[in-house]
UniProtKB/TrEMBL annotation:
Lineage, top ranks: Eukaryota, Viridiplantae, Streptophyta, Embryophyta, Tracheophyta
Protein name as annotated: GH16 domain-containing protein
A Pfam family reported for this protein in Swiss-Prot or TrEMBL: Glyco_hydro_16
Keyword Signal among record annotations: yes
GO BP, one annotated term: carbohydrate metabolic process
Signal peptide extent: 1-27
Length: 198
């Protein structure tokens, strides 16, 4: 399928495509209207292919975001994401799970940091447990994520959290509560995706 990406080199306007594949949690492919809702800036979210593909837009006025209608305690979620080509410095695209609580949130993040043309693309993972983050890790991707869709997955269970890129584990966070290290296991989390200017 050929996709056209309108893009201005000043990094102020671009579109991102997400192919929603959260079948491991639901046991079936997800569709936008059935499984998700817009959390902010509905005009910046366009459904394609009967809601199986979502296009997010960032411009000078706003970014946008959406979330699952239900929360889950453990499971595996995946999204196929194709980033915009070219200079995307100053933007952040995120796919994450979040308990959506203000004081002691739990969160598992994939954040795609914008880049300058010709530079490696970097994905950052982060884990919040009981309201505390500061567990960022960055990985330079070994491919151009704007050339095609790639699958990004989060596996979360009682024993560990694993972040995957195209089925390759890029980070494993073990449950070390016995050593006093917080681990997110008490709060169900929703599935979110956002696009914004940093």
């Amino acid at each position: 399928m050929a996709i056209f990406y309108p893009f201005k080199n000043n990094g102020v306007f671009f579109m991102l495509l997400l192919w929603i594949v959260v079948s491991s949690v639901w046991g079936r492919p997800a569709t936008f209207n059935q499984d998700f809702h817009v959390t902010w800036s509905e005009p910046h979210i366009k459904q394609i292919d009967q809601g199986r593909t979502i296009q997010l837009t960032l411009d000078q006025g706003s970014g946008c975001g959406f979330a699952s209608k239900v929360k889950y305690l453990f499971g595996r979620v995946s999204m196929k994401i194709k980033l915009v080509p070219g200079d995307s410095a100053g933007t952040v695209t995120a796919f994450y799970m979040n308990s959506d609580t203000d004081s002691v949130r739990d969160e598992l993040d994939f954040e795609f940091l914008g880049n300058r043309t010709g530079q490696p693309y970097t994905v950052q993972t982060n884990i919040y447990a009981h309201g505390k983050g500061d567990r960022e890790q960055r990985v330079n991707l070994w491919f151009d994520p704007s050339a095609d869709f790639h699958t990004y997955s989060i596996l979360w269970n009682h024993h560990h959290i694993v972040f995957y890129v195209d089925e390759v584990p890029i980070r494993v966070y073990k449950n070390n509560e016995a050593k006093g290290i917080p681990y997110p296991k008490m709060q169900a989390m929703g599935v979110f995706s956002t696009l914004w200017g940093s």
